[in-house]
Amino acid sequence: MVKDISFTNSKIKSSRRAAEMRGRNAESVAADFYQQQDFVVLARRLRNAGGELDLVVASETVLAFIEVKARASFSAANEAVTRRQQRRLVAAAELAMADHPDWHRNETRFDVVLIVAGSVVPLVDAFRPDDPT
């Protein structure tokens, strides 16, 4: 008996597309949030050899690299950025700053924005590159 995998592949692709749409929508919500806080969006989904940064925003004094997580619950969202992913985000941020020296600000930070049931929960300065964990 031959199993028809085309249905399964179609289902997986559809699921991936839906997840990507949720991610893009969550990133737009996060970008709007930062713009309301007088930040300017410098980049969305910036990719380089270090990884991908969901958002890069800046005010006059702060450059923030934003990881956006849309989840069904706060506990799931809060646990979504692992130490390994933090290292990738830092690597991507370092390359981005090297490529864009005009982005330099007095303060650089890494924020995580949780989007849960339509609520925006910013975790400002969520981690630092030198965290020992």
UniProtKB/TrEMBL annotation:
| The protein's name in its UniProt record | UPF0102 protein SIL87_11045
* Annotated organism of origin: Acidiphilium acidophilum
Q: Taxonomic lineage per UniProt?
A: Bacteria, Pseudomonadati, Pseudomonadota, Alphaproteobacteria, Acetobacterales
Q: Which domain of life is it from?
A: Bacteria
Instruction: Write out the GO MF terms.
Output: nucleic acid binding
Gene3D superfamilies given in the database record:
3.40.1350.10
Member of which family? Belongs to the UPF0102 family.
Matching entries from HAMAP family are given as:
UPF0102
According to the UniProt entry, where is the signal peptide?
none
